[in-house]
Amino acid sequence: MIDQLLMEPFGADIDLAEAVLKDYNAHLVRKASSMKGHYADADALEKLIQQGDPLHYEVFEKAVPQETGHLQFGLSKLQPGTVGEEFFMTKGHYHEIPEAAEVYLCLRGKGYMLMKTTEGECRAEYMERGRVVYVPPYWAHRSVNVGDEPLITFYVYPGDAGHNYGDIEEEGFPKRIYKRGDKVEIL
Ligand code: F6R
Ligand code: ZN
């Protein structure tokens, strides 16, 4: 019986120098136009979209079943840049199963993991190569790139966690991260 449920173990290679997942078989691409409603300066985002709708971020995965017991893992690669003065960021989400935590290991670049609860608590955890961030159950999470190269993180989370984008889209994150001259401001 259990034989029918067994999946073959597998290995995967990450080029750690370049922070690239080799032989990925799932690839999510989000361009600037996917980010409407997320940045403070909607006009600046519209301008960026008109200027060619550049790549914003990508997710590379070795796909596994989205089921209890499995672990999803892959690389998230967020381009550097700003929309107005606000640093490029991911949409962010709660997990559909809100009890599902997530671990991120930063492989390249500099940034923050911005996290929020439904009660409005908000935290920004710094990320740079070698730093691990633990996103506990119930915290929505979004990556923000404050450097001048791609921010690349390796992540792992429960296979059945799912993504709830709707709630955080309505609530928004209480804090935003801005480039002010050479400074990073979290407001
Ligand atoms: C998975 C996870 C990451 C993000 C990725 C893109 O639970 O947190 O793999 O999915 O960084 O961000 P979103 O999904 O917010 O567009
Ligand atoms: Zn997540």
Automatic annotation (TrEMBL):
InterPro entries: G6P_isomerase_prok (IPR010551), GPI/OXD (IPR051610), RmlC-like_jellyroll (IPR014710), RmlC_Cupin_sf (IPR011051). It comes from the Bacteria. It catalyses: alpha-D-glucose 6-phosphate = beta-D-fructose 6-phosphate. One of its GO terms (biological process) is gluconeogenesis. GO terms for cellular component: cytoplasm. Pathway: Carbohydrate degradation; glycolysis; D-glyceraldehyde 3-phosphate and glycerone phosphate from D-glucose: step 2/4. Its EC number is 5.3.1.9. The keyword Metal-binding applies. GO terms for molecular function: glucose-6-phosphate isomerase activity; metal ion binding. Keywords: Gluconeogenesis, Glycolysis, Isomerase, Metal-binding. Residues 29-170 form the Glucose-6-phosphate isomerase prokaryote domain. CDD domains: cupin_PGI. Pfam families: GPI. The keyword Metal-binding applies. Belongs to the archaeal-type GPI family. This is glucose-6-phosphate isomerase. It comes from Vecturithrix granuli. The lineage of its organism: Bacteria, Candidatus Moduliflexota, Candidatus Vecturitrichia, Candidatus Vecturitrichales, Candidatus Vecturitrichaceae.
